[in-house]
Amino acid sequence: MTISDLRRLFVAFVRYLALVLVATVLLLPIYWLVVASFRPAADIFATSSSVSLATLVPERLTLDHWREAWSGELPRAVANSLFVALTTAGLGVLINSLAGFAFAVFEFPLKRVIFAFVLATFMMPFESIVIPLYMLVRGLALTDTYAALILPEVASGLVIFLFRQFFAAVPKELYEAARIDGASWLQIWWRLTLPLSGPTIATASLMLFVHQWDAFFWPLVAAPSQERIVVQVAIARNVTLEVANWGALFASASTAILLALIPFLLLQRFYLRTITAASER
């Protein structure tokens, strides 16, 4: 083994060691959160003043907090969040891919200006538009409905950008050949370009799903009733001005994290591939 080989091995070792340390720092709070949900109420913060083995490894375990969380609002909240997030992801893929296809293929007046406004939408803080958005939803008589939770989040400037980048990279010859064969633009989008955009669809679905799964402020404003409660609102209701039910709070938060982790682990390779490809175009 040469000196250069040893140097490469040492560099690789240092790189992976740094990645392990960073991952440990990032995952340690989540690990503590999940472990704390299984501790008795008296033990949750008993060892939190200093980091020790007892902080990471509980001496006693209980399922009381999980039973309490799942016997309350959490099951309905999880079902509502899953319905809202999955519906938003499905509608969002269709609508945003159509918009991205239009920006990539067609030429029309003020195309660049309109696309710039589309890009600006995902840079705008949601809090700046929540009041006019609520007035619009109330004017349409959609307050406290699933439509109020789903429709405002279907269109996404970032997802439109990702689809536009992918469709713009498709060779123009494919579009021309399809048009010569008599296909309409809608058929080209549905039968040609959309099946080719699998990684982009996966990435868009993941982004829309996670965004809706993490939504708190808008569901709290637009659909505050018990029937429309979503998971983040259910988690927050474990804390009031008078008392905080930390055990149920940690159990509910652990549920939300673990359920959101499933689609991310399944689609992360498509997510990384799409983001990297979009940044290179």
Briefly characterize the structure.
The chain is mainly α.
Shape: flat
Q: Largest sheet at a glance?
A: none
Low-confidence parts lasting 5 or more residues at pLDDT below 50?
none
Number of strands: 0
Q: How many structural domains can be distinguished in the coordinates?
A: 2
How would you characterize the overall build of this protein?
This protein has 281 residues and is an all-alpha fold. It folds into 2 domains: 3-63, no CATH class; 72-280, MetI-like (MetI-like fold). Helices cover 73% and strands 0% of the residues. The chain has 14 helices and no strands. Helix 3 (64-70) packs across helix 14 (246-280) and helix 8 runs parallel beside helix 14 (246-280). The longest helix is centred in the last third of the chain and has 35 residues, at 246-280. It is flat, with a radius of gyration of 24 Å. The two termini are 41 Å apart. 28% of the residues are buried.
